[in-house]
Amino acid sequence: MVEDEGPVRVDSWIWSVRLTKTRSLAATACRAGHVRVNGERAKPAQTIRTGDEVRLFHAGRERIVVVSRLVRKRVGAPVAAECFVDNSPPAPPREVVAAAGVRDRGTGRPTKRDRREIERLRGA
Q1: What is the CATH number of domain 8-86?
Q2: Which residues of the chain form beta strands (DSSP E)?
Q3: pLDDT for 39-48, tens place per residue?
Q4: What is the residue extent of each domain of the chain?
Q5: Which portions of the chain have biased composition (kind: Basic and acidic residues) (predicted)?
């Protein structure tokens, strides 16, 4: 289940240690330039080794992790937590993140006035 030998693709490792939900999301993040290995932009098939620093910008925040163990297949959360050292800045508190306006179901499309109020609330 857990291996420490041989090269592992960066997209596969990101998915295996549960930094993204799917491997295709990890590969897409690599292709979009949201993944950096040791400061350099990573392609999905780039191999990583123990001790590499992986920076991933995903879901609105940056994750900075140092690889401590290589895994090829997706593992459980407790094992995944042992596979990297998380040096990420703390996530912003939920109170700080403004909640998007939720419209009642069945109210239809927002009017021009509603749209302007929504934009004013969002600060646009």
Answers
A1: 3.10.290.10
A2: 8-9, 35-37, 40-41, 47-48, 53-58, 61-67, 84-86
A3: 999 999 999 9
A4: 8-86
A5: 114-124
